[in-house]
Structures are given as structure tokens and as C-alpha cells.
Amino acid sequence: MELEKLQSEWDDLNKQINEVTENMNKILHMGKEDSFSDNCDKLIELETKYNQLSYEARANGFELGEDYIWRKYR
After folding, report:
1. Which residues make Cβ contacts (< 8 Å) with residue 30, sequence separation at least 6?
2. Which of 10, 35, 42, 74 has the greatest CB tally within 10 Å of its CB?
3. In angstroms, rounded to a whole number, what is the distance separating the alpha carbons of residues 20 and 73?
4. How many helices (H) and strands (E) does the chain have?
5. 69 neighbors 14 (Cβ within 8 angstroms)
6. How far apart are CA 54 and CA 74, in angstroms?
7. Could you tell me how far CA 35 lies from the centroid of its own chain?
8. Every domain of the chain and the residues it spans
């Protein structure tokens, strides 16, 4: 696992999670429950990937700083 690739994937997942969350907030205001459910499924999928990536990164000697930047510590 390369640091640059890890950070890129991490940033991309964060961006996608933020976009889905924003969509969910908009959908709630419009009252479209079906679309909200679809976005919930997508959010769960993204958060699962997020957790897997975090676990793999830590297992490979990386740590996440307070600034959300990954660093190699081993």
C-alpha cells in the first residue's frame, strides 16, 4: 500500500460520503423517501469501504493525523 494511493482513496471516499450526505439532506427537505432509502444504502456501502480502508492502512503501518492526512509510522 502506497501512501499517495491511500490518501487519494481516503480523500475520494470522504468526498463521496459528503456528497451522499448532502443529497440525503436535500431529499429529506423534498419529502422523497424512496430516494432517501437508496442514498442510505449508498452511504452504508461507502462507510464500509471507509472502515475497510482505515483498517488496512493501520495494518500496513499508517496512522491518520488530526488533519486527516495519513502518515507512515512503521
Report:
1. none
2. 10
3. 32
4. 2, 2
5. no
6. 16
7. 20
8. 3-72
Residue 42 grid cell: 449508498
pLDDT of residue 67: 86
Where helices occur in 31-74 by DSSP H, the ranges are: 33-59
Q: Is pTM beyond 0.90 here?
A: no
Place of cell 437508496: 38
Grid cell of 5 as nine digits: 494511493
Instruction: Judge contact between 45 and 61, C-beta under 8 A.
Output: no
Sign of CA dihedral 50, 15, 32, 28: positive
From first to last of its 74 residues, what are the pLDDT tens digits of the chain? 899 999 999 999 999 999 999 988 888 878 776 677 888 899 999 999 999 999 999 999 999 888 889 999 86
